[in-house]
Queue: 4 jobs
Job 1
Amino acid sequence: MSAAKRSMAGLLGALLLPLCVAANSDAAQSTAWPVANGQVLATFGGKHHGIDIGAEAGSPVHAFAAGTVLARETTKHCGQQLRIRHANGAISLYCNLVEIRVAVGDSVARGLVMAAVAPAAKGGKPHLHFELKIGGEKVDPLMHLPRITT
């Protein structure tokens, strides 16, 4: 994707996501980190279409924003995964899961525990891979997550 398209997708995401969250959440007007106290191990860019958030195996995986479970799949590259459709068509993807607690068609609230982080593959660190698509374009999830304060 060209720099201009990435920039436009980011701008579109910045405009649509607050609407997405507002439309789906009566209690809060914000998004939630999918893994609490995780460390970002890999960032968005190049061939990496999301972020990797390091966490202990078994750590709870939370819904980033309210929405509906669109798909629950298993792939060779991503292991068990969930796709959530949010208002205005935004879609979040969560990979490397175990103990999935939701089914296709279920409504999820922001922060709901949907699954747990899977143990690491050979020689790797356990982590959640998280992607965000807005307006059909993959965007940097870090631009749409709450800032972490210490």
Job 2
Amino acid sequence: MSTIKVQVQSNKREVQRLTAEAIQRGLEAAGMEAVTLTHRPKEQGGTPVDTGRLRNSIAWAVGSASGGGDDSPNGTLEDGVLVIGTNVEYAEIIEEGRQGGSGAHMLRNAINDVAPKAEKILKASIEAALGG
């Protein structure tokens, strides 16, 4: 009689790594999409433009397992967190407005408009990573 040996190995760690990388890529894609939305005309919810300094300063960052960097708003970002913002000192006044006035809400608009797409972006990224 012959003996057959079967060895089963778990690929759980590889699946977790691929999934984490796919989520990172998906969040990065959503961040790029959100920043693009801030470049719409002001009438469509984008950034008001005088010199273009504010609009051109808007950027995104995604936290990763290795942590954020010094370019992050607070030095580090939690894993899986997408942040969109700017370092221009007058941005808060434009975003929120002055007392009694209304703000442009270009960052809020971009986040709200990209949110429904983010789930699709993340799902597609994970499916591509896992071959699904």
Job 3
Amino acid sequence: MEPITFDADGSIPEVPMTTQGAAGPLDAFQELEAARACLLTGNVRVSTLRPDREVLGEIRHGDEAAYRYLDFGRGPDRVTVRVLPGTRPCRIDVSADSRWTGALGTVDVPARRSDEWITVSAPVRRTTGVRTLWLRFADPERREMHGIPLGAEEPVELCKLDAVRFA
């Protein structure tokens, strides 16, 4: 559910999907369930972890997830993610407002050592106010030139993402 407005002529402008729906911006310092993403690009999908919890799964190189709108207040110093690592490492670039601007920080998720969920943190460049959070997933071992893979590589699930939190 999203709030709508009407123009003077009675038309309804396009309403962008948000993470919080009709409520105000979400607090970036509270746990954000990954499945609340309002925009997914690539192969990434919302999948069921258990009856009361969904996660982002089937995450592959180049996939992205966006969350509108998070209130970063005066600015966090760190980002923490709860993930189930895949068989290859995963790099998660964290950006605000645009996925094309420089990353606020990068979370490096190691390749799977067990079938246990882990928590990984990384420092972030301070950002303030209400922003759109972008997560971009990459395989740091993938060999490519200008976005084109060098050699034949089977797509692999890099990780499953359960939650994000800033501190």
Job 4
Amino acid sequence: MKKMKQGFTLIEVLVVLSVGGLLTGLAIQILERALTTGTNTTKQLDEARNLNRFVDQFRSDIHMAIEASVDSPEKMVARLENGVVAYSFNDGAVQRIETTEGAGTRSERYVLGETRFIAFTAPSNPDRVQVPDRVQVNVQSNTGLKPSPTRTDRVVVAETGRRRRLTRPQGESQ
């Protein structure tokens, strides 16, 4: 009578190891994709948050401004009662420099992303006459698609002095 050995054959062990290695490789690829997707999502959320912060600050500055001038599509200056705010766009980011009397200079940078670009303009009315108290910023993205390579993300039109007029005491005249 033959004795039966208990255990696994070499072929069985090799099959189990190869299946385990295959499953481990698939799990690593899935994990790598999940991490890449998470990183890209975080980057997009940061850029969207920066865009919202920039638009809110821009609108607030223009509403408090006495006057605003668009030097070029990449540069805009707003004169406040106690200082000046200058915006410039370069390399996917907007630089805001605020210079106030007695308080010095404060600088902020809003990173909008490599594919986004902005243009400051002075909008015109239907008769094609520029409206002197308004400033517009167009935020666009480069989609990379052939029929329409750019997409408009946001258009913001702000009127100079709006907040100053709304917060003026009742007895004070213009």
